[in-house]
Automatic annotation (TrEMBL):
Belongs to the iron/ascorbate-dependent oxidoreductase family. This is Fe2OG dioxygenase domain-containing protein. InterPro entries: DIOX_N, IPNS-like_FE2OG_OXY, IPNS-like_sf, Iron_ascorbate_oxido_reductase, Oxoglu/Fe-dep_dioxygenase_dom. The keyword Metal-binding applies. Gene3D superfamilies: B-lactam Antibiotic, Isopenicillin N Synthase, Chain (2.60.120.330). The lineage of its organism: Eukaryota, Fungi, Dikarya, Basidiomycota, Agaricomycotina.
Length: 363
């Protein structure tokens, strides 16, 4: 019998609503829509993005991702990312931990560097399997270019709303510079069990994203958010041709905490969808490697000559974007897991108490 793929997202599971931002209106400079984006970015840090115009490239990426994931494991393992914080290539299931007990994650990643996609046929970070390398001109590079354009536009609006001088936000994300910007395809295997039990098992552990903005494409459920002021993880319902955008830690830090980098995780898709393998795909915009992660708002105000001499704005040193990534990735690797403390070493701006609180409550 022909397999028609997973059934639709069920109507009867609780979900968390997201604001819908119309990219066409943002592009047109609509000030009401820019206000909506600011509201979404500061209150939840997640929103749907419609009319982004990347539907074709997204479809092609899903096809490429599936073709790659279906390669034999030993072929994929030749491109494994390793335990030193490199994050391009292939990550096999179980090589990341999903919680402080060291539970193994259940996700496979294909991670393709923006730098390799833009420099093709030159390799900047690494080489990829022939199936992926062949798809740079037709699929990967077009998707990366469109994704960059969208995230740059959204970042410009958010930078302006923050009160940054023109060009300051852009200068943190220079696409010609080496960065951790990455296109990722994720696969998780079919899950069996009681929905209530499955809903408590993270296949990709609770986290905040490392970079500035994530441009995510979901077709099945499985993504959950822990909304501020709530104690319950809720699914985000995928909507056709709507991207899910979310803020990462770098933007949270740049904004002095004003723009929210919200915790999320991936569990089994709800109900009957759980019996199917799950694919998702994202482009992560991150500051280029040499950018020091610190609040930018004071700097912009200084530029504008508006700051008072004795501003007591808290400034915390987080190192560079490149160092931030390596630290977080290294400590997430199963091989580098030495207990709760090493797991905590991978954390970003998450409120760690919230993660443990929820995990304990779920036992
Ligand atoms: O697969 C998803 O829906 C989310 C993936 C995710 O959060 C990530 O890779 O950072
Ligand atoms: Fe994420």
């Amino acid at each position: 019998m022909a397999d028609h793929g997973p059934p639709p997202f069920p109507d009867d599971v609780p979900t968390h609503p997201l604001l819908v931002i119309d990219y066409a209106r943002i592009r047109a400079g609509d000030s009401g829509e820019k206000d909506n984006l600011w509201k979404a970015a500061t209150e939840l840090g997640f929103w749907y993005l419609k009319n982004h115009g990347v539907e074709h490239e997204v479809n092609e990426m899903f096809k490429l991702g599936k073709a790659f994931m279906e390669l034999p494991l030993d072929q994929k393992m030749q491109y494994e990312e390793g335990d030193d914080g490199m994050q391009f290539g292939y990550k096999a299931a179980g090589l990341h931990t999903a919680d402080e007990q060291g539970t193994l994650d259940a996700t496979e990643f294909l991670d393709v560097a923006k730098d390799d996609a833009l420099a093709f046929p030159k390799a900047i970070h690494r080489s990829y399997p022939p199936l992926v390398a062949d798809a740079f001109p037709t699929t990967l590079t077009p998707f990366v270019k469109r994704s960059i354009e969208i995230n740059e536009t959204l970042l410009r609006v958010l930078g302006k709303k923050l009160g940054l001088e023109d060009g300051v936000m852009e200068s943190m994300h220079i696409k010609e510079e080496r960065s951790g910007c990455v296109t990722r395809v994720i696969r998780t295997p079919p899950q069996q069990g009681e929905p209530q039990v499955l809903e408590e098992q993270a296949l990709l552990g609770a986290h905040t994203d490392f970079g500035s903005l994530s441009f995510l494409h979901n077709r099945q459920g499985g993504l959950q958010v822990l909304a501020p002021g709530t104690e319950r993880w809720l699914y985000v319902k995928p909507l056709p041709d709507h991207a899910i955008c979310n803020v990462g830690d770098a933007l949270n830090i740049f904004s002095g905490g004003l723009i929210r980098s919200n915790m999320h995780r991936v569990v089994a898709p709800p109900k009957a969808q759980a019996a199917y393998e799950r694919y998702s795909m994202a482009f992560f915009t991150r500051p280029h490697d040499s950018v020091v992660l610190r609040p930018l708002t004071k700097e912009s105000v200084v530029v504008a000559n508006k700051v008072k001499e004795n501003s007591n704005y808290a400034e915390e040193e987080r190192g560079t974007a490149g160092e931030w990534l390596v630290r977080r990735l290294k400590n997430l690797r199963t091989k580098n897991y030495h207990g709760v403390d090493s797991y905590r070493q991978h954390l970003g701006t998450e409120d760690y108490g919230r993660i443990t609180g929820v995990a304990v409550a779920a036992v």
